[in-house]
Amino acid sequence: MDFSLTAEQEAFRAAVETFCAREIMPRAADIDRQDEFPPDLWRKMGEMGLLGIGVPEAYGGSGGDIFDSYLAGEVIAAASSGVALSSGAHSYLCVYNLFRNGTEAQRQRYLPDLCAGRKVGALCITEPDSGSDAVGMTTRATPEGDHFVLTGGKTWITNAPIADVFVLYAKTDPAAGARGITAFLLERGMPGLSTSAPIDKMGCKGSPTGRIFLDGVRVGPEQVLGTVGNGVHVLMSGLDVERAIFASLALGQARRAFDLALAYSKERVQFGKPIAQFQMIQAKLADMYTRVEAARLLNLRAAMACVGLERGGKGTEVHKLAAAALLFAAESAEKVVYDAVQIHGGNGYATEFEVSRLYRDVRLGTIGAGTSEIRRLIVARELLRG
Q1: 277-289: buried (b, 16+ CB within 10 Å) or exposed (e) per residue?
Q2: Residue 137 belongs to what domain range?
Q3: Would 1 be classed as within a structural domain?
Q4: Could you point out which of 149, 191, 196, 296 has its C-alpha 20 to 30 Å from the C-alpha of 222?
Q5: What DSSP state is assigned to residue 336?
Q6: In this structure, what CATH number is given to the domain that contains residue 269?
Q7: How many CB atoms lie within 10 A of CB 65?
Q8: Does residue 236 sit in the same domain as residue 381?
Q9: SS3 category, 263
Q10: Residue 196 · residue 211 · CB < 8 Å
Q11: Beta bridge partners of 327
C-alpha cells in the first residue's frame, strides 16, 4: 500500500504552500486581531484557483477532485483557520455543491464569478431551533403557482454577512418530513432577503458568521437546486464531502501546532538546556506526532472514499469514514494544540504567540459540521447497519 502523493499532487501541494507562505501567513495575525474578512486576499485565492477546486475549467474552476480539495484545505488551515473556514464553506459547501447538483444554466450563471473570487458563497442549513437536527428545519418555501415564497431564517452561517450567493434549504412540504425539503439558490439583493452583522466568535476570526432573514423572498423554478422535494439528498450527499474536507482543516491546525511546539522546545532553555531534552516534553511531542499521523491516515481513507463515490462508486462506507475522520481529527487537534500551549508555558497564554490563536480556533472542530456526538452516532449507525 502506497501512501505517497503523485508527482502532480506533490506539485499542487507545494504551490499551495508557497501561496500560503507568501499571501496568508504574514497576514494571519492581523486577520485574527482585526476580525475582518480580506477581500483582496479572496481575489488572489480565486486567481490561484483555490476557490474552484473540483470544478471544470469550462465553468471557471481549476479542475482536480475532492482529494485536491483535501490537500489544499490542510495547507490553508495551517496558515489561517479563519481563511480556511471561509474558503472551505465557499468552495465545498456552496461552489462544489452547485456544480454537482445545478443545471447547466445555473452553473454558467454562478460558477465563473464564484470560482474567480469575484463573489462569495455560503451554505445555509442551521436554524435557531434546528442544528444537529437539520431535518427539523422550519424555514418554509410556500408554493405560489410555479414560484415559491420563502419565510424564516438561518443562523451560524459561515460567510453570511458577505456572501453573494446562498445555497439554502427550506421545507416545501412540511408534512412529507425529510422528503419535503428543497434546496434553493438565492442571491444577495433579492427583496426580503437580509443578513445580520457578524457574530462575535471566540475563534476563527476573519471568517464572518451570521444570520439570514427571509421575509417573503419570492423565487422562480430556476432557483431550485436539484428537484423539488429532493433537497435532503442534496444535503446528505454533500455532508460526507464536508466532513472529509473539514477533517483536513483540523489536521492542518494540529500539524501547525506540532511544528510550532517542536521548534519552540528546541529554542526554549531551562535549567541550562533546551526543554526538548526533558523526557516529559519528549513524551508530549511523541504523542502529538502520533495523533497527527494517525489522523492523516484516516483522513486519507475518507478523502479517497469520497473520490471513489464521485467517480461512480457505490456503498455507504463513506458515511462512516467521513464521520470517523472528522471525529478523530478534530478531537486529536484539540489535544495537540492543548499540548502545544503547555509546551510554550506562559508564552502559550500570550496572544502574541500563534499557539494561543490556534487554541481558540481549534474548538470549533468538534462542534461544526455535526458535533462529535453526532459523528459518533453516524459511525455507530453504520456499524450496526453493516
Answers
A1: eeeebeebbeebe
A2: 123-229
A3: no
A4: 196
A5: H
A6: 1.20.140.10
A7: 14
A8: yes
A9: helix
A10: yes
A11: none
Both 86 and 136 in a single domain?
Answer: no
Same domain, 344 and 296: yes
The reply to whether 240 and 222 lie within a common domain is: no
Q: Which of 93, 119, 145 is the last residue of a domain?
A: 119
Q: Which helix (H) or strand (E) holds 383?
A: helix 372-385
Torsion angle defined by CA atoms of residues 18, 23, 25 and 30, in that order, rounded to the nearest 10 degrees: 180
When the pLDDT of each residue in the chain is averaged and rounded to a whole number, the result is 94
Contact 304, 67 (CB under 8 A): yes
274 membership: H or E segment, kind and range: strand 273-274
> Looking at residue 129, what is its pLDDT?
85
The total number of structural domains that make up the chain? 3
What is the tens place of the pLDDT at every residue in 154-178?
999 999 999 999 999 999 998 888 7
C-alpha cell of residue 99: 456544480
**Euclidean distance between CA atoms 64 and 50, whole angstroms:** 11
DSSP state, 90?
Answer: I
In sequence order, what are the residues at sequence separation of 6 or more whose Cβ sits closer than 8 angstroms to the Cβ of residue 281? 265, 275, 343
Q: Are residues 128 and 115 in the same domain?
A: no
3-class SS at 276?
helix
Return d(Cα 55, Cα 114) in angstroms, integer: 11
My answer on whether 164 and 199 are in the same domain is yes
> What digits encode the pLDDT tens for the residues 24-74?
999 999 999 999 989 999 999 999 999 999 999 999 999 998 899 999 999
Bridging pattern class, strands 273-274 and 209-219 = unpaired
The CATH number that applies at residue 36 is 1.10.540.10
Q: With a cut of 70, say whether residue 1 has pLDDT above it.
A: no
At 200-254, the pLDDT tens digits run 999 999 999 999 999 999 999 999 999 998 888 777 777 888 899 999 999 999 9
| 242 noted as active-site residue | yes
Strand ranges for 118-264 from DSSP E = 121-124, 140-144, 147-158, 165-171, 181-187, 193-195, 209-219, 224-225
**What are the grid coordinates assigned to 219, written together?**
423565487
Catalytic residue among 17, 74, 127, 242: 242
